[in-house]
Give the backbone structure.
Amino acid sequence: MIYFDNAATTFRKPESVINAAVSAMQYLGANPGRSGHSLSLRAGMLVYSTRKKLAKLLGAGDAERIVFSLNCTQALNTAILGTVVGGGNVVTTTMEHNSVLRPLFELQRAGRITVSIAEPNERGVVTADAIERALTPRTYLVAVNHVSNVTGAVAPIDEIGRLCRKRNLRLLVDGAQSVGYGDIDMNEQNIDFLAVAPHKGLHALQGVGVLAIGPHVDVRPTFFGGTGTLSESVFQPRELPESLESGTLPTPAIAALNAAITHHEKTRAETRRRLRELSAYTLEKLASVRGIKIYTAPDTYNGIVSFNIANLGSMDACNILSAQYDIAVRGGLHCAPLIHRYLGTLKSGMIRVSLSADNTFPEVDFFLRAVRELAETEAIGRM
Amino acid sequence: MIYFDNAATTFRKPESVINAAVSAMQYLGANPGRSGHSLSLRAGMLVYSTRKKLAKLLGAGDAERIVFSLNCTQALNTAILGTVVGGGNVVTTTMEHNSVLRPLFELQRAGRITVSIAEPNERGVVTADAIERALTPRTYLVAVNHVSNVTGAVAPIDEIGRLCRKRNLRLLVDGAQSVGYGDIDMNEQNIDFLAVAPHKGLHALQGVGVLAIGPHVDVRPTFFGGTGTLSESVFQPRELPESLESGTLPTPAIAALNAAITHHEKTRAETRRRLRELSAYTLEKLASVRGIKIYTAPDTYNGIVSFNIANLGSMDACNILSAQYDIAVRGGLHCAPLIHRYLGTLKSGMIRVSLSADNTFPEVDFFLRAVRELAETEAIGRM
């Protein structure tokens, strides 16, 4: 099988990542930070070491401000629901995934906030100017997608961060598609909240998400329970990270993430170079196929290659590619309704290839041949 | 090491459970139900099969009403926060874990509900009568711990379920310490919500919790995001299970749970018999040690053995048992403040042994020898 759905979950996990998870299952089956015995302490140290590595990787400062969750979506929800300013306004963008849009629009529907949308420019990028134009006197939070899961467009985070600092606004960055693929530094870039999907760009496992919280912000818990701290109280403690991490942590997935960061740091220069080459090659060759419409943002070589084949429905194309060529791409809508509306693809959806550095040029060539065949069949069908 | 902290997380995971997780990491690294390609479909089928097995195991009816979460705490929060009736009352008990108490008391502090507490009888059990006495005209939900993580006390769920059905009240059962150890049938026992910690009694992995939802109740989402359904909308869909499961699911932990249920069904008769024998033996022998105070509910043989050694602090005892004997037990408070207050152990905490059927009689004998030594040293120290 050729797996081109790495923006959903990267397929190939390093051996060290799987081994770390298995080792945690076999030898670390205790609850970190809950008991005084040696196994619980060892599990606690592993979790803390993972927080420290993440803080360093993300330029986040304190390890205590790294919070684990079920997934990136839950991390984004924690930042959004845990910092609501009643009657306030949140500025977000056309590029957002539903993991940002849905909590915001549900809050707006409940009358608690208003939501403003900044639109992309002609190159498919939402600029800091566009964000600034969307601000209202009541804006307290700006929520931006770092890399679009639909077009691959990269937001100008540096400029947006400077704007937010100048205006004293909180900045939430959805790093689902960026962390691992490019460098990010919360401190230097004035990012208050960064949400991470470790099973994507870091090649860790499904089952853990990360919210990194900057030093200037406070987040109220959105769910409550045992934290191993202040156990005599029926109220949630307010110290990070425990305040936002109730119940048993996913130790195997955290152990895997720990190993994944080490692997990432060793390999990132090479994998990024390779991914760029694969992306540029795929986009260039695809553009030359007759009947193809490409949606990937111009000069964007981060693995996201979105397109449609003439009038062929994207789900149909995806099904044919899977059934006849054993190629896994994603069709339909990509959980980001506003950008689909903006691009006019709400009905057709689009075919998204998302590459990883583990993919190969022969895989891309085989895929291109399949697309050419589909485009030709489609052209004949329409005659 | 002798591991007696199985109520936190069962230590020994069946080989089939670990293999299922590894296989999911290696070959199923796709997002279930998000794409049309074969790998995503296979992951989706695995998740659905796990829902079906859980529905059968729990007597829950529809597979669609099995909802996955980060952990049991989050499952309990979903049931509690997602069904709030403004101005209503919730009856709960002295036996509850903070995973139930904290969301309830936070809601009370916010002025949204009132909380009433039903107390245990002289045998340490909260009866249906005690629940009935605590009801108010505004009560809409009864939340009860099935098996206490502190004393092992088993709630009379049949009677409580009948009471709730008669009074048209919703019943939430915290099955963290019961599912796997005893049979439960939501349909027969009139349970509306059952929260499960698969990494405990089912010997699955940390990283997934389960909320099973009965047919008569509606739960509002508490967090929002991509669901793979209704992607054209910026609002959360209302169909189960997607409405309560935003973002990427923890596929490896779900695959492991699937295998764990199969293993459980093959072995449960034998493991329950064995756990009962080990528990009875431990309690009987421990009771004969001078200076020991036992807190385990009378005639309770489900692996929970709680006690203190004269005036020795429980954390000190736990540290000595770990450092000098390599025995892992849990000391201090057990995230259940009301039962500690009730038993007068808020200051001392208590030592909790929690056995699994994987433990052995020689392990128990070694532990008993250690406790005797500690009790003697303590007695000499006090002379």
Remarks:
- The longest strand of chain B covers residues 139-145.
- Chain B touches chain A through 93 residues (CB under 8 Å).
- Chain B has a mean pLDDT of 96.
- The longest helix of chain B spans residues 251-287.
